[in-house]
Amino acid sequence: MRIATWLALACILQPCASFSEELSEPELNGISRQATGELKVEILSPAPGQFLEGDNRSVIVDGGASSFGGVRYLDLVFVLDNSKSLRHTDPENFLSAGAVGLIESLSPKSDIQVGVVSFDFKAGLLQPLTANRGDAVKALRKLDRDGGTNIADGIQTALTELDASARPDSSRVIMLFTDGLSNARKARLAMEEAKARGVAVHTLLLGSDEKGVKMLQEIAGGTGGSFVQVTDPAMLPEVFLNLRTTGVDSVALQVNEGEPVPAQLAGGSFSAEVTLQPGENRITAIAQGIHGATATTEVRVTSGPPNCASLELIALRDGLPTASINDRAVEIVVDASRSMWGRMQGEPKMVVAKQTLRAVSDDFSGPSNLALRAYGNSSESQQKDCSDSELLVAFGRDNREQINQAIEELRPLGQTPLAYALSQAARDFDGIEGEKVVVLVTDGIESCGGDPELEASTLRDSGIAIHVIGFGLDNAADEDTASLDAIAQAAGGRFFLAGSSEELQRALADSVGTSFRIYDGLRVVASSVLGSAEPILLPKGQYLVELDSTPPREMAVTLIPGEKLTLTLEKQQQQVSDRQERQAVGYTPCPTSGPAQYSMGNDFAGEMNTIPTRGNERPRSIATLER
Q1: What b-and-e string marks burial along 111-128, b requiring 16 or more CB atoms within 10 Å of the CB?
Q2: CA end-to-end span of the chain, whole Å?
Q3: CB-based contacts of 396: which residues, under 8 Å, 6+ apart?
Q4: What is the distance of C-alpha 340 from the center of its chain?
């Protein structure tokens, strides 16, 4: 129940003069009813701009609100009547229980100091201001009951302690309780001192004495505090719990445009649990003062998947972008078997492949040495010619026109002799220096009984990598896909799935770039290729980048969430250097799902699947590299 309710109840039980009537009298020296300062509210947790992991995360919001000073700290002094009369008006000591209950209800996160002053004929400081709430509780339980009632001395003693021990930016509050009457003139002077020092005095009267009501109303009204009157001492514990010690009646929290959530308010601090939505959230705190004022504040926080770092690799040769820092020879081996008459995107797969190959071959500026081989393009399928593979265009630097013409003349006819085509491709590299790559584009598996995995392993042993593009396959999880993936693994290459012209074009472009892997310790957590437009997203950590160049290069990198690290490799006059540049990019959610475009066994397919290292291929440690 709120303070206003208790006041209304008290006035029903005992006629009360209104504040306006009481404070208009000349002897009150023109003291205003509202002596409070500006109502303030602040959210202390979560911090502005904070990132909170989780797509729908509940978060505890803590803060402070006050009309009497700062919102981060509360310095509260209980000034409690311990006169002899309380033996009769409060024989079961509900006063002590109520004050203890208020202290125990204060938020454990709130920064509050509590002091205790008792008064009869004279006042005494039982407990200086302390953050140790247990010490304050002990002091409250030691109140004796003897003597008279000197409210003014109690207020003065509390003011002295606040001057000595209160913090500069705190709300300074006195909680005054009495069951009797005191010297009104001296009490008024004490009130004026409290007002001058910016200290709010809340008053609580046990009893129904009219003069007592008038005096305590005046003290509270003159300092911006509140007055509560009760006649039943058993009500004191609940009254204490409902005191608005910093002049704040309520605080509500709103997330974005959602419904406000009432916060628990105790001792000027508030707390409530709210639910955030994925992305940026605006949390607004709305405070209502006991005299009708309103104040708001807000913080913006982000909720979502973990924040990732971004890694991009760039290669330059003589200042120009390239997909390889070394000389490269790339041979494209194209499936021209009968199955390429199958349709995709409303056209035969062969038509789509021709259009894409012609478009991509013109852009192959990185691998200046390019060749074209096909299989299944010379003999009809029923002839079961398992040696049907032909080098259509030999390696050359200025042969793009010939390659395009050969692509145009391809006709799907025969079998799929993958193993034979790969064995012949190995011979095509005789006399070729530098990096050597075969890009195999096929829509099916071996149909002539050969062992393409064995041939791929042989090519790898001779320094030739094979990248496999599964083109127009019906089911990405079927046996054909697994078989083609195994060829790429055996050759130390990558496997791509291409179900459209756009995907085929992207796979071809990626396959001609120098591949690299990223290790977290001994695990491969990502792999890609130089020239890829997509940055790699990884959690915070230290990683090792291993580049399949000639010779291989290894580079240690430290990734920081919210930053993009660009690792640039540049080759000039046969010398290769690398440099790292960082750029703040803000919140970048780590991927949580999505198909891999390529793999080396497994791949960084949205979730960070790991790729076991193979035997003696384990990279040196980062510590070793940094030495």
Answers
A1: bbbbbbbbbbeebebbbb
A2: 69
A3: 369, 370, 371, 402
A4: 48
Q: Pairing relation of β-strands 279-289 and 515-520?
A: unpaired
Dump pLDDT digits (tens) for 291-304: 788 999 999 998 88
Contact 51, 149 (CB under 8 A): no
Q: Two tokens at 336?
A: 């021209």
Whole-number Å distance between alpha carbons of 147 and 213: 21
Q: In the chain, pLDDT over 70 holds for what percent of residues? A: 85
> What is the Cα–Cα distance from 585 to 561, expressed in whole angstroms?
9
Rounded Cα–Cα distance for residues 500 and 423 (Å):
29
Taking phi first (over 0 means left), then psi (-120 to 50 degrees means alpha), and beta for anything else, what does residue 431 get?
Answer: left
Q: Can you tell me which residue has the tokens 């509202």?
A: 34
- Name residues whose C-beta falls within 8 Å of residue 555's C-beta, 6 or more positions apart in sequence: 544, 545, 547, 567, 578, 625
Q: Classify residue 463 as left (phi > 0), alpha (psi -120 to 50) or beta.
A: left
Handedness of CA 373, 375, 377, 383 (dihedral sign): positive
If we measure between CA atoms, which residue out of 302, 277, 283, 275 comes closest to residue 41? 283
Q: How far apart are CA 91 and CA 106, in angstroms?
A: 26
Which whole number is the average pLDDT over 618-625? 35
Q: How confident is the model at residue 8 (pLDDT cuts 50, 70, 90)?
A: very low
* Mean pLDDT lowest among 46-50, 132-136, 325-329, 339-343: 325-329
CB 251 within 8 A of CB 65: yes
Q: Single out the residue of 83, 153, 87, 163 nearest to residue 124, CA to CA.
A: 153
Of the pLDDT bands very low, low, confident and very high (cuts 50, 70, 90), residue 617 is very low
